[in-house]
Specification:
117 residues, 27% strand, alpha+beta, four-stranded antiparallel β-sheet, 2 helices, two-stranded antiparallel ribbon
C-alpha cells in the first residue's frame, strides 16, 4: 500500500518517530514510544500499526507489551488474541478491536487507542 504524505504527516504529529516498513506484502507503521491515553499502563509503548486488512480485521495495532487499560485491574481486560506475533524481527501483542474501513491513518490510530480509555 502506498501511504499519502499528508497522512504520514498527521501520524508524525502524534508520534514524531513514526516510520513506514514492509514485510510479507503488508505495510506497517512503527510508532516508537507511542503515548497512550491517561491512566493506562505503561504510559507509552512501542506500537506497530497495520493499516490494511490482517487476520480478519480491517486494521491492526500491535504493542510491544500487553497494555493495561485505564481503570482496569490488568491487561487481560482486553481480548489479547495476537500473542505474540513476530513482525519486523520483533514480538508484538494485539487485542481484538475493530475499526471501520476508509479511515485516515490518524483516525484509525485514535479508534484503536479508544480501547485504553
Amino acid at each position: 500500500a502506498t501511504l499519502a504524505n499528508d497522512q504520514l504527516a498527521e501520524l508524525l504529529a502524534i508520534c514524531f518517530a513514526a516510520s513506514v516498513h514492509s514485510e510479507g506484502g503488508r505495510t506497517y507503521i512503527q510508532l516508537p514510544k507511542l503515548r497512550l491515553p491517561d491512566g493506562g499502563e505503561p504510559s507509552e509503548v512501542d506500537a506497530l500499526l497495520c493499516p490494511e486488512p490482517h487476520d480478519g480485521y480491517s486494521s491492526r495495532l500491535y504493542f510491544a507489551v500487553q497494555v493495561k487499560p485505564a481503570g482496569k485491574e490488568n491487561a487481560t481486560a482486553l481480548n489479547w488474541n495476537g500473542n505474540p506475533g513476530r513482525i519486523l524481527e520483533r514480538n508484538w501483542h494485539a487485542h481484538s478491536w475493530r475499526t471501520p474501513e476508509g479511515l485516515r491513518l490518524a483516525q484509525m490510530l485514535a479508534i484503536h487507542l479508544k480501547a485504553f480509555r
